[in-house]
Amino acid sequence: MTDTPTPVLAPATFQRRLLDWFDEYGRHDLPWQCGRTPYRVWVSEIMLQQTQVATVIPYFERFMARFPDVQSLAAADQDEVLHLWTGLGYYARGRNLHKAARVLVDEHGGEFPLHSLEEMAALPGIGRSTAGAIVAQSQGRRAVILDGNVKRSLSRLHAVPGWPGRVAVERRLWQLAEHYTPHERLADYTQAMMDLGATLCRRGTPECGRCPFNDVCLAHARGEERRFPESKPRKALPTRTTRMLLLRDARTGCAVEQRPATARGAGCGACPSSMRRQPSRPGSMPTPRAAGWMPAGLPSPMSSATSAWRSPPSRRGSSASIR
Q1: What does pTM read for this prediction?
Q2: Which residue of 56, 130, 259, 293 has the fewest CB atoms within a 10 Å radius of its CB?
């Protein structure tokens, strides 16, 4: 295997085909495309990680109405941010968005460090690809992206073997993305690459007949579209058993506590778990006040509960994408 796959097209040819397709079939009226500020592009990019555009749009509009700029987001309580995030899932995205807003206000005067992709990528929850998307779409400057859609499209186009999460495979895909990225129409090109993977070169059912690259796509020529990109090697998932206490009060309902930042469901309210709150002596438990629990106000009496945690799919926060 060579270190760098041979590009199937010259950059100018690839760009022309992609942008001609985008001009006719691409998405041009998304909310974050109207007034493309770094802040609006950033929020949209974070929301679009592992979430489809149709789902994101109403969340994005509500989020912008409440937090129109980075200063208002930084000044908010995390609970309010996560409340607006409810239903989008992957709540670490919302927590990192809030953390990054505070870093921007505290360390960068409320401005994005657009002069440096490295500084952008170092912000909580951003990473190299999201940093490139923010710069390319809000500033029109050349910056390369490699989100999940782009990885899938380039993997199929060049039949790149291996799981893209492996360092060596990801490096090859970055080299291809760098090869094709133009110096003009950066906002359109970036959106076009995302649209290609989201609408045609989809994960399960690609529409190869409509693809502007179907005559040069190596995976399509081999009839192996579903093979690429290759899946992550499977690991056996551990089984965990958790006992949770439902402490009911006739006046306030059921006591809950906020789960720690390193736990599954971090930051969310949950019934106190015996795995994390051991009695000080056999048969004893800390009182709700001493344990830091709070009333949840559940309406009906309950005497027992079972909790099952399911591990989410492994992904890189800055590159995974469904859109």
Answers
A1: 0.78
A2: 259
Interatomic CA distance for residues 57 and 226, integer angstroms: 29
CATH 1.10.340.30 maps onto the chain at 11-145+180-201
- The answer to whether residue 45 is catalytic is yes
What HEC string does the chain produce?
CCCCCCCCCCHHHHHHHHHHHHHHHCCCCCHHHCCCCHHHHHHHHHHHCCCCHHHHHHHHHHHHHHCCCHHHHHHCCHHHHHHHHCCCCCCHHHHHHHHHHHHHHHHHCCCCCCCCHHHHHCCCCCHHHHHHHHHHHHHCCCCCCCCHHHHHHHHHHHCCCCCCCCHHHHHHHHHHHHHHCCCCCHHHHHHHHHHHHHHHCCCCCCCHHHCCCCCCCHHHHHCCHHHCCCCCCCCCCCCCCEEECCCEECCCEEEEEECCCCCCCCCCEECCECCCCCCCCCCCCCCHHHHCCEECCCCCCCCCCEECCCCCCCCCCCCCCCC
Per-residue confidence band for 299, with pLDDT thresholds at 50, 70 and 90: very low
Which pLDDT belongs to residue 294? 55
CATH number for the domain whose boundaries are 11-145+180-201: 1.10.340.30
Q: Tell me: the pLDDT tens digits for 274-288?
A: 654 444 454 444 455
pLDDT category at 298 given cuts 50, 70, 90 is very low
Marked catalytic residue, from 24, 45, 184, 230: 45
Name the token pair of 92: 């670490």
